[in-house]
Task: structure prediction
Amino acid sequence: MDTGTYISHANHFKKFYDLSFKEIAKEYDLQMIDVHILLFVKNNPALNTARDIVYSRGLSKSNVSNALEKLRERKLVRLEKDPKSRRIQRIFLEPEGENLALELKKVQSQCFKRMLQGFSEEEWEILNQSLRRIDENVVAALKELG
Result:
């Protein structure tokens, strides 16, 4: 097992994914963290806290906080205190943020479509099952490590 190859594959994916958003990010003056946040909120409406973003995307708490504040100032998102816990702020897309997130989602879809080009349904299902098993192993290992 050549672990360097796996890391190289992951790095290639990240570079390709980030470059896929280069033009739209420039057009709308967005940093990649802004793209991640807008897509995360759009794609995961039930996971709408900064903590959800930090945990799910592996981003630093301070970077997410700073980016959210900038997105709020630009009126792309709004933050609302959770009625059950005043310490929690829920993130919602404003109309302009919703429109932008839809455009970002198109780029994301094109990115994944290109990445999976030539895969049959059966190959996609095998890949999906394999990735799910890898994720289960990683989650179990993380629990063991504390």
